[in-house]
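Journal club prep — side note

Before the paper discussion, L.F. wants everyone to see what a predicted structure for a comparable chain looks like in token form. Sequence:
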Amino acid sequence: MFTGIIQAVGKVVAMQPTGGDLRLRINTGKLDLGDVALGDSICTNGVCLTVIELPGDGYWADVSVETLDFTTLGKLQPGARVNLEKALTPASRLGGHIVSGHVDGVGEVLGLHEDGRSIRVELSAPAELAKYIAHKGSICVDGTSLTVNTVNGNRFELNIIPQTMAETIFGEYRAGSRVNLEVDVIARYLERLVLGDAAADPGSTGGLSLQTLADNGFLGGAAPPPGSGNSY
């Protein structure tokens, strides 16, 4: 698990296609690797990767086909900078929010503009993730824990303070940049939980409807009127 508080910006120094997937070498810059062992996890642009080698100035990690399909890691090039965070410990401060390093989808930067000393960034998320993004809720963008300022459909805005701009790769984003998104883990589990026993039924996808709410006692036991089975 991680907190979304970036500890260092690293650099991709090698990408080796291996058996259909990818082996990635990251130079970790100022990130202290003194307490990192083989098998430990490092969040790399929001993706939890397992350390398989420690050459001294960074680490090697294998990137599976699944990860290549659902994140931006396969689009990186040698020299690309990446956000890094080591896995948290029981003594760590949870300065951001609970981040798993399991990317839910790839979003797109739509625009950036100055807002006082901060930068306001507008992004779009895949349509299927829009229901998890809430005003003043948390979202993880390329491994960075951020607060959602506004939401409009599948579009949302973030306020990036100077400290975050300086200590992450946000300063490199432009309109059209693709970013890894992880929604709040609590929202994901809550959606599944409200299905109750129906979660075990084949084909159950976790959609939240008036019928689901009624079946689980959230509408005072009253069944929804015919034709009102809207999903949210």
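L.F.'s comment for the group: The domain at 8-86 is CATH 2.40.30.20 (Elongation Factor Tu (Ef-tu); domain 3). Keep this in mind when we get to the figures.
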